[in-house]
Specification:
The structure holds two protein chains of two kinds. Chain A has three helices and no strands. By secondary structure, chain A is mainly alpha-helical. Chain B is elongated and about 55 Å long. The chains are: A mainly alpha, B mainly alpha.
Chain lengths: 92, 105
Amino acid sequence: MFSMTDVFLVVGITIAFTVLLCLYRAVRGPGVFNQVAAVNVIGTKVIVLLVAIGYIFERPMFVDIALLYAALNFVGTLVIAKYLERGEICSA
Amino acid sequence: MFSIIDIVATILMVGGLFFMITGAIGLLRLPDFYTRLHATGKCDTLGEVLLILGCMVYQGWSFVSVKLFFLMFFIFMANPVGTHAIMKAAYYTGLKPWKKGEPRM
């Protein structure tokens, strides 16, 4: 019979497939803004993928890594957006 | 066997997967940068909130569930802010929105 581990396995495989779909836009996207948006979307999908991997391995402490990755992805997106808008990261 | 809590968690996670697949298809198929962010900015946020809510229901009352709640709250706040920052940067650097009849960008 199925167990809940199989449900989390299906969730993880589907999220990995959507990451592959977004990877096309991250590589071929016309212009740098499409690429930045696609990388941001991939980063936010990977957070949920980490949580699912933690439940597949029955070790839910992967949530700590997911929290850290969420903070890093948010700050990275903001810094890249400010750099593309102003041409510099920090004005003196 | 599946209990009631497992079935509720599975329904929540399947709903989240539907929204994430919809967001990915929108990122691939829509004609413009702004419309692509319109697709992903909402679908990804709702899909991830539903998926992490399913994990919280499966976990029950524990310390990991509190951490999952903080993760969900942070995504719910931070993901629209990041989308808005990218879109504002693209608008101020002069990227024109797509109009009907023009070729796809």
